Amino acid sequence: MKNAILKFLRDEQGATAIEYGLIAGLIAAVIVTTVGQLGGLIETNFKAICNGIKAGTCP
């Protein structure tokens, strides 16, 4: 029984999975933030282009 408990305490596989999960979550958050900001900039540029081509007919 003592050996099983010591083996469980020395096992680092669960910690590695948690670390990978945290890294994946951080990467996902960065991607969502970046895409959100770029989306706003692209929308502004398209509206400016549309207004330059045909003034007042853009949504």
TrEMBL record:
Record keywords: Membrane, Transmembrane, Transmembrane helix
Cross-referenced InterPro entries: Flp_Fap
One Pfam family here: Flp_Fap
Residues annotated as transmembrane: 20-42
Domain of life where this protein originates: Bacteria
Protein's recorded name: Flp family type IVb pilin
Species this protein is from: Ralstonia soli
